[in-house]
Design a protein that fits this description.
The chain is mainly β. It has a single domain, classed as TolB, C-terminal domain (Neuraminidase, 6 Propeller), CATH 2.120.10. It contains 1 helix and 24 strands. The chain has one helix at 72-75; strands at 5-13, 16-21, 28-32, 37-40, 46-50, 63-68, 77-85, 91-102, 107-118, 130-135, 141-146, 164-169, 190-193, 197-203, 209-214, 220-225, 261-263, 269-274, 287-291, 296-303, 306-314, 319-324, 330-334, 339-346. It has an 8-stranded mixed sheet. Strands 1-24-23-22 form a 4-stranded antiparallel sheet, with no helix packed on it. It has a 4-stranded antiparallel sheet with strand order 10-11-12-13, with no helix packed on it. The radius of gyration is 19 Å and the shape is globular.
Length: 348
């Protein structure tokens, strides 16, 4: 293990896609891509959540992300994302809200699940859904990453919401003040566009929004997400197409937003937090990104509008998600069957 931290294997779960700590209890909730939900208490006891929506499981699709509403401790409201079948071979990501009711220390139920947002249009294929969630620091807005479904061109067509970051009120309505407010739905949902497949999104302590996304063959990006900006995909990239065909460099289009960090070779990002705790001294405000192909935890220092990778910590396997506990410990989970859940603490 690297010198930065000790790693404790605390449990194993199948097909995880997201982990998130419940406010106030220390319970860790696990979203399983095949449609199941479970949780783990700090003392190691585990439980199951019933009532999850039916998901279209396959490829990159299934049950997705989870965030707790700002008033969760009184309302029990949660937001979750998943992939649904739209008829035939068409699929798309959706976001729903529900009440999480726990009948015992081993069982919870999602009640009154209702869809509040969906990718439009639904398309064939089983990739690039993105569907990561973040709530703004003021507690007023829900941000959703919406992948371009491996179709590329939709990311530049704002008549749809693919290849975008959308900004919604907490009931799913397009937020007032969005850059295309007043236009027809789904254009009025869009906050930024020109994205490929953003699998991590988080707010920095200064309130700025950051997202990390997959490039093609090269050109993974960390972007400062700003209102109305075009992030260039598929017009420009620091990578190439998988078959080797060139893509114009971002330097050829100064009118487009430029990535704060670009990675070639890729890190294959899967999730991201911005660290807030005190346990890891000097890490406050750093972006922590889990990597699939890189099999690592990537630490990026954010300084205002700029960012720079400052460390990379090998973890030995493809990593799927990351969360910060209330004590400042960092929890990460691997991908796949019997995926290890790890607790990272500073090296003693």
């Amino acid at each position: 293990m690297v010198e930065a931290f000790d790693s404790e294997h605390v449990a194993s779960f199948d097909n995880p896609w997201a982990i998130e700590f419940e406010p106030g209890t220390g319970r860790l909730f696990i979203m399983h891509r095949d449609g199941k939900m479970s949780f783990r208490w700090p003392d190691g006891r585990t439980g199951k959540v019933s009532g999850a929506p039916e998901v279209d499981y396959g490829g990159q699709g299934g049950l997705g992300d989870l965030v707790f509403a700002p008033d969760y401790e009184t309302s029990g409201t949660v937001y979750l994302s998943w992939v649904e079948n739209g008829g035939g071979r068409n699929r798309g990501a959706v976001v729903g809200m529900a009440k999480l009711a726990c009948e015992s220390e081993a069982t919870c139920t999602l009640e009154d699940v209702r869809n509040i947002w969906e990718q439009a249009p639904k398309m064939t294929g089983q990739g690039h859904y993105s569907h990561r969630l973040a709530i703004s620091p003021d507690g007023k807005h829900l941000f959703v990453t919406s992948g371009e479904r491996q179709a590329q061109e939709p990311a530049q067509d704002n008549g749809n919401n693919l290849g975008t970051v959308v900004r919604l009120d907490l009931d799913g309505a397009p937020s007032a003040g969005n850059p295309f407010a007043g236009q027809k739905s789904p254009t009025d949902q869009i906050w930024s566009y020109g994205h490929r497949n953003a699998l991590g999104i988080a707010f920095a302590p200064d309130g700025k929004l950051w997202a990390v996304e997959h490039g093609p063959a090269g050109g993974d990006e960390l972007n400062l997400i700003e209102k109305g900006k075009n992030y260039g995909w598929p017009l420009v990239s620091d990578g190439t197409q998988y078959g080797g065909a060139p893509i114009p460099s971002p330097t050829t289009r100064p009118d487009l937003a430029v990535a704060a960090v670009s990675w070639t070779p890729v890190i294959a990002p899967s999730d991201m937090i911005i660290y807030e705790g005190d346990l890891f001294n000097g890490w406050q405000g750093n972006a922590l990104i889990t990597g699939l192909k890189s099999r690592a935890l990537i630490r990026v220092k954010i300084d205002g509008d700029s960012a720079k990778e400052i460390a990379r910590y090998p973890l030995g396997d493809r990593m799927r998600s990351i969360a910060e506990a209330s004590d400042g410990a960092i929890w990460v989970i691997e991908e796949g069957q019997d995926a290890h859940l790890l607790r990272l603490t500073p090296k003693k």
